[in-house]
Recover the amino acids of this structure.
């Protein structure tokens, strides 16, 4: 199954925007001037209005416009009359339809339908069937006009050209050589150039007759070839072909489109419908392919009649065609399909096929995770290994509380800190990490959004930083704003006057030179490391964002004349900035799942099997992660100072808090929904969906927030309430109903080769409420194929013609319509007053369509309204973007009591390696404080204090084998023991030499130290590891090499240290890209660990022969400054496996590094 959101210029939130007056009328709704001049009353939900036809103002053809102008002099003595004439042609489609003309066809191409079905086609243009003139003979009236289009249904043998007639001397194409080898397309039509149609031999066609008029703009026509006998049966007449039956087979429907996926873009829509009076095959006991063709009726009346005996075929122009499968009599119908669909409702997850009693405890745990919507996914970790992770998308079968943890910040710089480690499975949950990355990539790909976001960030950041620095300088007395300058102006003027007097000199000044001696001023820290500046900046960003979220005081409010400048922008008024509407609309669209890739909606196809209804919740944490990833781009500062991102989220939350003027309620945000996957969606793309709530909602509040067909046969509906909501209204019922313009047509209740069973429906000119009956007759009427034809309108042969060997299979007009009219006039009488309830004198096309329509089927799904909704804390609350500062203690308690068990004591600092002690079933992988930005991304992660004495866990799948001897799995976690208990020491080993030197300086060593580093701040240092014994023979596989750098202040009594801490962007490899270098810190923040991990996926590790040299760069190191030359120590630890994958002894070396005040001259 392939899912893809349909490309459309229509907003995914049009159902929500329409009540607010934002949805503008489109071409389909705004072009029907003839209908709108009638001032038709609006339709209620579920209503439709039928018209027999719309007459175009100017049908296709040539027209002459004549103008006459009379000019007279004032005295009337001279008169001049000028006449001019202009000829123009109204051109309409004639042999091919333009894209977008067809709304739908039934049965859909490739699908099946019962034998009773009468295929039909729906056009977006209500005038199309009458834009050309098909008959000049039949009298037209205000209630009847013959269209120029008709639907005809054929079997393969009725359209197949005999082999001797398609090639050879007897071919009908013998004078058109290029068509001799032409093969019919899949629908058995052949393209023929218009100028060569008349060269067909033994073939009659109306195409040549109408082509001579010169109105056609096409070069060729798709042509089908009918046998003469079939053509005469379809157009039987006395002296010419009769087109009267086809005047009953086209009409117009005006519908209210509420609850429809495709047509629901507009509140009302007009569609023209053309249906067939011929059914599929009756001669087959198994499903049979039949071909429906939309043919042109132009020129048929002008053909020679009757056809000549030499005529072998009649060629008709086909403007559109499709194939469907005709089912034999007695097969399943729409009612059965809906009943089956209603019994398949479930949650959006796959059901296990093995009974729970046959599963182990571990298997039951995996099934439990699958029941939460998780699936296994392939995952490539940062170190290059391929492993397994669990993953689910934004749609979950169970409610996920938010936040998952009280420490859930949802302000990330890469998304890695949003991973959750499942301790029992030993694999990470990458759901929110993937959501964050998807949000970032989606935002970068949208040029308009990324540009608007960058500008909006600048509009918030620049004044916020400027005011924050000004406040700091003002507190230090180094800055005065305009008000301060004006306030102190008198004192300045007074002081200037004193300069010219002796009094100024004698005011405490002993020497004139001292007047230039300034008072020493302590430097002011204007970096964001200043906590006071950071606090002021954060506060200012919220204030600046608040200003930008308001309406433009000079703009015009579209909905209220009393708008005040303090109102929030709500898409119905004028914003103060052009960028905020773009950002706001983009975020809202994504909360409505617009443009979200299908694999994040359905992570496993088994979650949505064919012919099923599946319900789901929208994971608010997933939305938060996605939006945070999107808002992370275009940042001016590093993540830990990114207060602008928080401010933009607060702007969005302010919008969600502001009531809309039309409803008085805040904007609706989806939180619940369902999928429908069924052939019913293919048959009826505009299937009407109605949601009912308790308490009932007002008419201005949409019941469905989004309804869209995201793939063939897959319908997505989003709601803002679930059946379990404890606040506000809750969902109680869903109804699925055929759309009025998609009602199918049938010849009767049952049809086979012997009988036709039908009922005549009641059709009212005015409705009689006292008559609830659905049909005219209490009993079903049966017409038999073998009844004699007496010539009366009630005979079966006059109503439906089977033909010899079921070759005709058509409803007979006007006999059928006359019989219908007679029965309506006889039976449509009010019981008490005997007053007729049907007043029409003619069976119009609208009446014909009402009789032939199949009864509407409706599926209702009850949400157990008799039982009270269970109380689920947090369920039903309004949706906002998560901002940590707005979390209340109550919401924290809710988050901690559902779905995820968190140990908050160790949550703030955690490594990608397993902890030393069990800390719970699931843990988030949380980074240390964010680091400075750099052109590349590297991330510092905390590690255990005694990490060098333990083997790293949960790094890659190839470590599983070596972990088994030292790791006991339990439900609560993994117990770890020191490596020394399970390893052995080799006789000899590889030896690596460590060298350190600053970038751009030569390598300088003395007394065997590892290098000389100048005591300079913010420098880049190269670490080089070189194999000292490359000729060593042995099986050593590098598992990991660690460089541990103790950290502390220059005056630390515990010793001398290279650096006090590290806030740089992290390390990067310079050579031997077989390795990744990852930085982490110990939990006590006293050591920086640089880990060289091979990228290899080999089970044992990387052979040491492939690591003769490894070097990496540590960027922006703040080297401690001492008063004199100082030695500091750095250690390296080498982890090896043998050829069996068993860990060897850890080899640790200590290296001295010489810190100097200045580099020696060279």
């Amino acid at each position: 199954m392939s899912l893809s959101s349909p490309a459309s210029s229509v907003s995914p939130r049009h159902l929500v925007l329409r009540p607010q007056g934002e949805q503008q009328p489109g071409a389909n709704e705004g072009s029907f001037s003839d209908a709108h001049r009638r001032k038709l009353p609006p339709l209620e939900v579920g209503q439709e209005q039928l018209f027999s036809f719309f007459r175009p103002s100017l049908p296709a053809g040539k027209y002459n416009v004549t103008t006459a102008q009379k000019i007279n002099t004032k005295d009337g003595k001279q008169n001049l009359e000028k006449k001019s004439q202009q000829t123009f042609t109204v051109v309409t489609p004639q042999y091919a339809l333009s894209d977008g003309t067809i709304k739908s066809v039934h049965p859909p191409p490739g699908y099946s339908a019962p034998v009773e079905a009468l295929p039909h086609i729906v056009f977006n243009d209500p005038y199309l069937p009458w834009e050309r003139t098909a008959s000049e003979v039949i009298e037209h009236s205000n209630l009847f006009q013959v269209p120029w289009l008709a639907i005809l249904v054929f079997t393969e043998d009725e359209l197949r050209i005999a082999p001797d007639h398609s090639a050879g001397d007897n071919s009908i194409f013998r004078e058109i050589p290029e068509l001799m080898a032409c093969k019919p397309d899949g629908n058995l039509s052949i393209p023929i150039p218009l100028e060569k149609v008349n060269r067909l031999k033994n073939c009659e066609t109306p195409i040549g007759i109408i082509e001579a008029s010169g109105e056609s703009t096409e070069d060729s026509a798709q042509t089908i070839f009918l046998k003469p006998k079939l053509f005469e049966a379809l157009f039987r007449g006395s002296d010419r072909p009769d087109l009267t039956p086809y005047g009953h087979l086209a009409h117009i429907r005006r519908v209210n489109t509420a609850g429809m996926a495709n047509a629901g873009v507009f509140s009302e829509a007009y569609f023209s419908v053309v249906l067939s009076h011929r059914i599929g095959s009756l001669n087959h006991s198994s499903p049979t392919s039949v071909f429906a063709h939309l043919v042109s009726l132009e020129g048929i009346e002008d053909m020679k009649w009757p056809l000549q005996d030499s005529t072998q075929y009649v060629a008709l122009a086909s403007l559109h065609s499709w194939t469907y499968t005709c089912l034999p009599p007695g097969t399943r119908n729409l009612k059965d399909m809906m009943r089956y669909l209603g019994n398949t409702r479930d949650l959006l997850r796959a059901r296990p096929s093995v009974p729970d009693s046959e599963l182990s405890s571990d298997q039951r745990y995996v099934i439990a995770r699958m029941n939460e919507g998780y699936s296994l996914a392939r995952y490539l970790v940062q170190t290059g290994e391929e492993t397994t992770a669990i993953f689910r998308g934004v749609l979950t079968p169970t409610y996920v509380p938010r936040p998952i943890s009280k420490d859930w910040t949802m302000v990330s710089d890469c998304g890695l800190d949003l991973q959750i480690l499942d301790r029992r499975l030993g694999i990470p949950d990458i759901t929110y990490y993937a959501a964050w990355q998807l949000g970032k990539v989606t935002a970068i790909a949208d040029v308009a959004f990324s540009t608007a976001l960058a500008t909006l960030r600048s509009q918030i950041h620049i004044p916020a930083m400027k005011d924050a620095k000004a406040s700091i300088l003002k507190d230090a007395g180094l800055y005065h704003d305009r008000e301060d300058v004006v306030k102190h102006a008198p004192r300045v003027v007074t002081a200037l006057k004193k300069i010219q007097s002796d009094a100024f000199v004698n005011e405490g000044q002993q020497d004139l030179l001292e007047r230039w001696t300034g008072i020493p001023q302590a430097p002011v820290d204007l970096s964001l490391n200043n906590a006071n500046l950071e606090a002021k900046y954060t506060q200012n960003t919220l204030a600046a964002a608040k200003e930008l979220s308001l309406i433009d005081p000079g703009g015009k409010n579209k909905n209220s004349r009393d708008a005040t400048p303090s109102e929030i922008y709500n898409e119905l008024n004028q914003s103060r900035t052009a960028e905020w509407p773009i950002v706001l609309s983009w975020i809202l669209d994504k909360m409505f799942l617009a443009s979200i890739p299908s694999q994040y909606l359905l992570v496993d196809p088994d979650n949505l099997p064919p012919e099923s209804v599946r319900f789901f919740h929208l994971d608010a944490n997933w939305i938060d992660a996605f939006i945070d990833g999107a808002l992370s781009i275009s940042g001016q500062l590093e993540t830990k100072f990114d207060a602008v991102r928080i401010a933009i989220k607060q702007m969005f939350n302010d919008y969600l808090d502001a009531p809309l003027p039309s409803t008085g309620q805040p904007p609706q945000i989806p939180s619940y929904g369902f999928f429908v996957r069924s052939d019913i969606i293919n048959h009826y793309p505009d299937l009407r969906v109605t949601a009912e709530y308790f308490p009932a909602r007002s008419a201005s509040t949409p019941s469905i927030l989004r309804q869209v067909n995201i793939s063939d046969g897959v319908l997505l509906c989003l709601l803002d309430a679930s059946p379990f909501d404890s606040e506000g209204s809750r969902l109680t019922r869903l109804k699925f109903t055929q759309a009025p313009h998609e009602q199918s047509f049938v010849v009767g209740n049952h049809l086979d080769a012997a009988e036709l069973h039908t009922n005549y429906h009641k059709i009212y000119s005015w409705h009689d409420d006292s008559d609830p009956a659905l049909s005219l007759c209490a009993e079903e009427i049966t017409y038999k194929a073998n009844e004699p034809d007496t010539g009366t309108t009630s005979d079966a042969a006059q109503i439906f013609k089977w033909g010899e060997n079921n070759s005709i299979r058509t409803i007979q007009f006007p006999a059928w319509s006359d019989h219908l009219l007679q029965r309506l006039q006889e039976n449509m009488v009010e019981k008490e007053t005997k007053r007729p309830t049907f007043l029409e004198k003619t069976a119009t096309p609208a009446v014909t369509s009402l009789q032939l329509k199949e009864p509407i089927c409706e599926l209702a799904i009850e949400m157990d309204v008799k039982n009270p909704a269970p109380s689920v804390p947090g369920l039903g609350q309004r949706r906002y973007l998560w901002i940590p500062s707005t979390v209340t203690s109550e919401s924290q308690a809710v988050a901690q009591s559902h779905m995820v068990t968190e140990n908050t004591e160790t949550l703030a600092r955690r490594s990608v390696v397993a902890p030393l002690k069990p800390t719970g079933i699931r843990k988030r992988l949380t980074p240390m404080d964010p680091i400075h930005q750099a052109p590349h991304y590297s991330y510092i992660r905390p590690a255990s204090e005694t990490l060098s004495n333990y083997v790293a866990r949960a790094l890659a799948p190839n470590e599983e084998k070596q972990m088994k001897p030292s790791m006991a799995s339990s439900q609560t976690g993994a117990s770890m023991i020191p490596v020394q208990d399970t390893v052995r020491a080799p006789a000899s080993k590889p030896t690596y030499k460590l060298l350190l030197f600053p970038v751009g300086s030569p390598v300088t060593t003395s007394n065997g130290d590892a290098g000389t580093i100048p005591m300079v701040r913010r420098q880049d240092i190269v670490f080089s590891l070189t194999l000292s014994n490359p000729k060593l023979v042995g099986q050593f596989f590098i598992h990991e090499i660690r460089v541990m750098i103790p950290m502390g202040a220059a005056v630390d009594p515990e010793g001398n240290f290279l650096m006090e801490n590290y806030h740089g962007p992290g390390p990067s490899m310079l050579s031997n890209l077989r390795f990744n270098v990852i930085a982490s810190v110990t939990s006590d923040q006293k050591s920086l660990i640089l880990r060289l991990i091979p990228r290899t996926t080999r089970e044992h590790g990387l052979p040491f022969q492939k690591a003769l040299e490894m070097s990496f760069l540590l960027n922006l190191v703040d080297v401690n400054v001492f008063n004199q030359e100082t030695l500091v120590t750095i250690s390296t630890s080498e982890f090896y496996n043998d050829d069996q994958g068993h860990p060897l002894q850890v080899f640790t070396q200590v290296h001295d590094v010489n810190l100097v005040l200045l580099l020696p001259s060279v």
The chain is about 20% helix and 25% strand. The longest helix spans residues 447-475. Residues 941-969+979-984+991-1156 form a domain with the Immunoglobulin-like fold (CATH 2.60.40). The CA atoms of residues 158 and 366 lie 58 Å apart.
